[in-house]
Amino acid sequence: MRHLLSTADLTRTQALRILDTAEEMTGVSAREVKKLPTLRGRTVVNLFFEDSTRTRVSFEAAAKRLSADVVNFSAKGSSVSKGESLKDTVQTLDAMGADAIVIRHGSSGAPAQLAASDWSEAAVVNAGDGTHEHPTQALLDALTLRRDWHAAHYGEASSPRGTDLTGMRVLIVGDVLHSRVARSNIWLLTTLGATVSLVAPGTLLPVGVESWPVTVHYSFDQALAAGPDAVIMLRVQAERMGGSFFPNAAEYARRWGLTEERLAVVNQLRLAETEAPALILHPGPMNRGVEISAAAADSAQSRITEQVTNGVSVRMAVLHLLLTGSRGHHDDDRSSL
């Protein structure tokens, strides 16, 4: 396995191998000494051209728990601010002995360009590129969903290893147009057998969304009436909006926000079918009171904190698989995970 650039490139076997490895890595966090010697002597570079808290810190924690040396690079205060190109920056880091480069970039396709170039021999992990993809976020979302899905069907005592999401109904809500998280989740969750639906204002849906493997709704209340097993709320990305995509925050919250009232309605529908309420996820950071209410974010069915915890395990698994050369029997693709 060489790079992780997109969930669209992952087969079901590859995706399950990452999730199963992440389950094993979860046990490390429960130890008194949270370390494995797996990547001792290796160097992981976090190359972030956009601001980040959760993803950067999560990758740093993951690499350190695998005993790798970590170099954190931020575009602010670096030679990038003086006009240095991506190529020159990467070649400089490569000359310092980078084994893996975790890159977040504002331009869609930047990680793929790096992986396809001869600028570096390092493994490349896409930590979010423009509005394109964010594969490790989708993987941690899948890990989070799979645990509850497996427990509901097979009991909490058994291991979820090898379990996919066949039959699960997932609703993704909000700013799909600007969301790399939504795109990665659509490809991955579909590969794992889930049925994915989208609901958003028409102005926040991408052109060509009808060709995606999803069902599109324009009414949040109608979409909730279908009784989804999980609801993934997306952040309204105001920093990527060059114009007005909806009247104001209050109107957005009224029509597209997961309010306390909507939470009660969907739970009533769910409890009529099953004992399990719908799971609530959010990639963060949250705009409380806009796309999600405090009552929903802090409810017992919210898995937002678990998402952050699972992010470390997933990123440990990705770095481990990329840098140790572990291969599955059915993985013949040497170009990417």
TrEMBL record:
Its EC number is 2.1.3.2. L-aspartate binds at K82, R180, R235. Residues 2-146 form the Aspartate/ornithine carbamoyltransferase carbamoyl-P binding domain. Residues 167-321 form the Aspartate/ornithine carbamoyltransferase Asp/Orn-binding domain. GO terms for molecular function: amino acid binding; aspartate carbamoyltransferase activity. It holds the Pfam family OTCace_N. It is an enzyme of class 2 (transferase). Pathway: Pyrimidine metabolism; UMP biosynthesis via de novo pathway; (S)-dihydroorotate from bicarbonate: step 2/3. Keywords: Pyrimidine biosynthesis, Transferase. Carbamoyl phosphate binds at R54, T55, R104, H134, Q137, G284, P285. GO terms for cellular component: cytosol. It catalyses: carbamoyl phosphate + L-aspartate = N-carbamoyl-L-aspartate + phosphate + H(+). GO terms for biological process: 'de novo' pyrimidine nucleobase biosynthetic process; 'de novo' UMP biosynthetic process; amino acid metabolic process. Heterododecamer (2C3:3R2) of six catalytic PyrB chains organized as two trimers (C3), and six regulatory PyrI chains organized as three dimers (R2). Belongs to the aspartate/ornithine carbamoyltransferase superfamily. ATCase family. Catalyzes the condensation of carbamoyl phosphate and aspartate to form carbamoyl aspartate and inorganic phosphate, the committed step in the de novo pyrimidine nucleotide biosynthesis pathway. This is Aspartate carbamoyltransferase.
